Amino acid sequence: MAVVLGGVLAAGVLSMPAAVAAEPPIDFQLPFTCGQEWQINSYGDDHAPALDMVREPDQVGTEGALLTAPADGVVNESKWHDNAGNIIQIDHGGGYFTTSIHLQSRSVEVGATVKQGQEIGRVGKTGPTSNGHPHLHFEMAIDADGDGRATWGGVGTERVNSWFDGVEYGGVGETWRNVASKNCGGDPGPGPDPEPEATTLAYTGDKSVSNGSDAKLSAVLKAKESEEPVEGREVSFELGDGDTAQTCEGKTDADGTATCTVDVADQALTEDATVPLTAAFAGDDEYTKSDDSEKLKLQHVEGRSYGLAAKIPLPLIPVGIDPTPDTGTVRTAGAETKSPACAQGINAIVLNADALCAEVVTKTGPSAATATSTVADVSVGLPGLPVIGISGLTSKSSSTCEAAKGGVSLELTVAGTPVSLPDTPGYEVDLGLAGKLVVNEQTPVAGADKGLTVNAVHLTTLAGADVVIGSSTTSAHDCA
Question: Which of 203, 333, 346, 362 stands 20 to 30 A from 429 (CA)?
Answer without folding.
Answer: 346
